[in-house]
Write a structure and sequence with these properties.
By secondary structure, the chain is an alpha+beta fold. The chain is built from four helices and six strands; from the N terminus they run ααββαββββα. Strands 1-2-6-5-4-3 form a six-stranded antiparallel sheet, with helices on both faces. The radius of gyration is 20 Å and the shape is globular. About 20% of the residues are buried.
Length: about 140
């Protein structure tokens, strides 16, 4: 190959790498969080359920709004502790950051998320089909 063709090949490969990086970061909730925040490890609750933890520079309300705009959650819940977003396979908590600066993000898979986030949102979140109180059989007089 000539130098001109090598330059074209390198340019195409470079564009593919950049395109993949951009697509990865915007195609999932996890990718969005990983692109905007710094991982700080894993947090566990007393029962051993886990959530990946991140710190971000943006305020909780700004970060949660940007995430919800990019990836529409099934449910949102705002409490005194923070903003919580539920997706089909994961749950996100956006809390105030250390020292009142930025945000702390907790990202849990659905399996661990219900228990992990229960202290924050209580029984507000049911299964992915809707709120916990919205199905029949929810107790005396529930759903009737």
């Amino acid at each position: 190959m000539t130098v001109g063709r090598w330059g074209l090949v390198v340019a195409v490969v470079g564009l593919l790498v950049v395109g993949y990086s951009v697509a990865r970061g915007t195609s999932s909730v996890r990718g969005f969080v990983e692109d905007r925040c710094r991982s700080t490890g894993v947090e566990r609750d007393p029962q051993g359920r886990r959530a990946d933890a991140f710190t971000c520079r943006e305020r909780p309300s700004v970060l949660a709004a940007a995430l919800a705009k990019r990836h529409k959650p099934a449910e949102r819940r705002t409490t005194a502790s923070g903003l919580f977003l539920r997706y089909s396979n994961q749950m996100v908590g956006v809390l105030g950051g250390p020292g009142g600066r930025g945000s702390k993000v907790l990202l849990a898979r659905e399996r661990d998320g219900y228990g992990f986030f229960y202290p924050y949102v209580g029984g507000w979140w049911g299964t992915y089909s809707g709120r916990g109180e919205s199905f029949r059989g929810g107790g005396p007089g529930g759903g009737k």
